[in-house]
Q: What sequence folds into this?
């Protein structure tokens, strides 16, 4: 199985740190791996001290944002299955676009934490979209209409004006 497929599968249910070790030095390969969810990319040959430093850095970052490890997150209104990549509300599966899923998944993986617009934009759309806040507002409105009992007064997908968003299970 190609490494990018493995990485996408792991990212579907886990936030474990992933460092790609590869002989491929092409910039496009590095970008593809990082955009697919790798935390770092090291090309061969590499020194053991550098690898160990990168491992320590990845573990520090993961410790700051690690979810509780539960692949299914339940709220009073809906359930998110991170492994199956499904959302169920009132007993029926809710269809989400890939972008809607990306936004929801990022928020769900950081329950109760403030996540900035820039963090979500970079994670879901990529590094070039860090200032495109209007994209995010549109997708949050779609998610609220699909998931919140009262989209005008969201209980789970909460906006903190001027700061970002918070997922409240």
A:
């Amino acid at each position: 199985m190609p490494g990018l497929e493995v990485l996408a599968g792991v990212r579907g249910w886990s936030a474990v740190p992933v460092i790609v070790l590869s002989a491929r030095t092409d910039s496009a390969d590095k970008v593809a791996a990082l955009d697919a969810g790798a935390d770092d990319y090291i090309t061969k040959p590499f020194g053991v001290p550098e690898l160990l430093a990168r491992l320590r850095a990845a573990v520090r970052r993961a410790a700051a944002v690690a979810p509780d490890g539960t692949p299914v997150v339940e709220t009073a209104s809906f359930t998110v299955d991170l492994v199956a990549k499904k959302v169920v509300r009132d007993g029926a599966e809710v269809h989400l676009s890939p972008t809607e899923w990306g936004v929801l998944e990022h928020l769900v993986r950081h329950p109760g934490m403030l996540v900035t617009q820039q963090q979500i934009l970079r994670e879901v759309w990529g590094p070039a979209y860090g200032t495109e806040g209007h994209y995010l507002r549109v997708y949050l409105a779609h998610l609220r209409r699909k998931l919140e009992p009262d989209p005008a007064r969201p209980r789970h997908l909460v906006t903190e004006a001027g700061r970002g968003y918070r997922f409240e299970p």
